[in-house]
Design a protein that fits this description.
This protein is an all-alpha fold. The protein is 90% helix and 0% strand. α1 runs antiparallel to α2.
């Protein structure tokens, strides 16, 4: 459960960072890279929750 909370916190932090990057009209590359980081974190979160629910159903 701790890993899930860490992922949620990191997702929120990077989402806020993306908001700042977009609001300050920083380079497209920086927006893209921040967005990719956010996508990866969300992917990790989804995989983690999928694995957790699968393990619960099997046990």
């Amino acid at each position: 459960m701790k890993r899930l909370q860490e992922l949620q916190s990191e997702i929120e932090r990077v989402r806020q960072e993306l908001d700042v990057v977009a609001a300050e009209n920083l380079g497209t590359r920086e927006c893209y890279l921040t967005s990719v980081r956010l996508d990866k974190l969300i992917e990790d979160y989804m995989q983690y929750t999928k694995d957790e629910y699968h393990l619960r159903d099997c046990g």
